[in-house]
Predict the structure.
Amino acid sequence: MKIKTMRFKKRYIAIGLIGLEVVSIPVSAQIIDKVAFSVPQKVISVPFPSEAGVTKFLVSSNAPFAVISENAIGEFQVNVQVSGQVNGNAFGSNAQLPGAESSCAAQTAASPTKVYEAVRKTAAQPGDVLTQAVIVQIRYDAEISPDFNIITQDKAKRISSAAACETTLS
């Protein structure tokens, strides 16, 4: 039914409703801007088979994360590789460096301690988990056998950070 063929009162009611809808669009936009959408923080880590003195993880996250070490005392050299190949599959094409590329932490107690802290997520662009992943390599004295856990920074807030190393491992 066309507006011109409507009866007089119906025409003004239809035009009034359309005008009301047009006026409400900016109000709706302001409401949408003020509503905070929150995505749960997640970190996915897959360990590689470990060697004496070296542990590697493939890590993908949508939030900053921390590497936690426990049951060991010593120095931990942490290196992050943003892209490369894993078993013939490319990783990291949509990833970013989550924090320092290299760091060293000295853990002085066997209690859980942060040996690496990321300041941003690994995902730089949309993509699958492997393309947003980085490799975190941790080197330490081959005589010790620490337990590592990778968790989001939100969950790691109460865990103390390790001191920086005085020397770096070779």
Observations:
- The mean pLDDT is 86.
- The helical segments are 8-34.
